[in-house]
Amino acid sequence: MTRYKVGVVGCGFFGSSLARELAAHPRFELAMLCDRDFERAKDVAAEFSATPTDDHDVVAAHPELALVVVATPNHAHAEPAIAALEHGKAVFVEKPLAVELVDAQNMIASADASGSPLMVGHIMRMMPGVRRLADLLTSGELGEVAAIETSRSRWIDTGGADPQWWKLDKSRTGGELTHEIHELDLMCWLGGEVTAVSSIATADDGFRNTVVSFAGGAIGRHTISTRSHTSSWELTVDAAEGSVHADFHTGRVSRLRGGRVEESWPIFDLDAENQSLIDAASRTQKYNSGNGGSSLWMQAAIRHEIDEMAAVLDGKADADSPLTYARERALVVAEQVRLGGGEPAALSGSAK
Question: pTM for the whole thing?
Answer without folding.
Answer: 0.94
